[in-house]
Design a protein that fits this description.
3-hydroxybutyryl-CoA dehydrogenase, 3-OHacyl-CoA_DH_NAD-bd, alpha/beta, 6-PGluconate_DH-like_C_sf, N-(1-d-carboxylethyl)-l-norvaline Dehydrogenase, domain 2
Length: about 280
């Protein structure tokens, strides 16, 4: 099936990034969010991020202007009903995602594919809360979406071959590369990345190194663009904790126990960059 119009639920960091790359690749994009402020800020955020690409010379000014015209913020979830595909990119909380599916599904055309950008919640479990498990799958983008090349594609138990092929085609048209992951706790990237971040938090807690030493060691010692603690702040410490909890609960191995220091920071509201305080102080 051909996908022309895509709905995005959530105008936060991931939702706006997904809307950005869809619009640049020629899709008509409808974005909704329960927060009027987030919705109002969306065109500005996307324009600013596209401007970075224009400055770097990876996108032309004309392509940016055309893409921005294809982007439509809408306060109404019901308008997403006529999209060929809807990508849910709301907060990483299962109850929030399920409430969205319950409100959205009655408006969806029977052919519409429903995808979730969840970073760790089981796809089959989410699919079972919709009317279309065969037209449901995980399409997991990396942050920042306009910059990162990878998209993880995850089938639920009932996902049809046609649905999966349509998602593969979409990823290709976005100019990104898909990695296929099994519906298993935290999929591939977060299964491997988050234990490293959690271990960095343990190393900090145990005094193996300070924040700067740990990040410098990993940045310069293993050629990573960001050190693990800087990356944790970038992802959000609440998201890191929630993914570690999914790994610990889902795999039942003590090696996935969330670091107490990570938990303390989350309890303090030190959630990383978005809270202007995490392992680093951004104030
Ligand atoms: N759109 C949106 N944001 C953009 C952007 C664009 N077109 N181009 C750059 N950025 C952002 C960066 O995140 C950063 O944000 P701030 O403005 O808040 O500082 C800033 O712009 C820096 O931009 P630069 O042009 O200087 O970019 P850089 O060359 O320093 O690279 C980076 C920045 C690409 C983020 C690089 O540091 C990097 O690759 N870091 C690792 C990112 C990573 O590992 N992401 C995956 C996280 S895991 C995940 O996403 C899965 C999950 O479920 C948790």
């Amino acid at each position: 099936m051909e996908i022309r119009r895509v709905g995005v639920v959530g105008a936060g960091q991931m939702g706006s990034g997904i809307a950005h790359v869809l619009a640049l690749s020629g899709y008509e994009v409808l974005v909704t969010d329960t927060s009027p402020e987030a919705l109002a800020a969306l065109p500005r955020t996307v324009a600013r991020n596209m401007d970075r690409q224009v400055t770097k010379g990876t996108v032309s000014g004309a392509d940016r202007d055309a893409a921005l015209k294809r982007l439509r913020p809408t306060p109404s979830l019901s308008l997403l009903g006529q999209c060929d595909m809807v990508i849910e990119a709301a907060t990483e909380r299962e109850a929030v995602k399920i409430a969205i599916f319950e409100s959205l599904v009655p408006h969806l055309a029977p052919r519409t594919i429903l995808a979730t950008n969840t970073s760790s919640i089981p796809i089959t479990r989410l699919a079972a809360r919709t009317d279309r498990p065969e037209r449901f799958l995980g399409v997991h983008f990396m942050n920042p979406v306009p910059v990162m090349q990878l998209v993880e594609l995850i089938r639920g138990l009932a996902t049809s071959d046609e649905t999966f092929a349509a998602a593969e085609e979409l990823v290709k048209r976005l100019g990104k590369t898909a990695a296929v992951a099994r519906d298993y706790p935290a999929f591939i990237v977060n299964r491997i990345l988050l234990p490293m971040i959690n271990e960095a938090a343990f190393a900090l807690m145990e005094g193996v190194g300070d924040v700067v030493s740990i990040d410098t060691a990993m940045k310069l010692g293993t050629n990573q663009p960001m050190g693990p603690l800087e990356l944790a702040d970038f992802i959000g410490l609440d998201t890191c904790l929630s993914i570690m909890t999914v790994l610990h609960d889902g795999l039942g191995d003590s090696k996935y126990r969330p670091c107490p220091l990570l938990r303390t920071y989350v309890e303090a509201g030190w959630l990383g960059r978005k809270a202007k305080r995490g392992f680093y102080d951004y104030r």
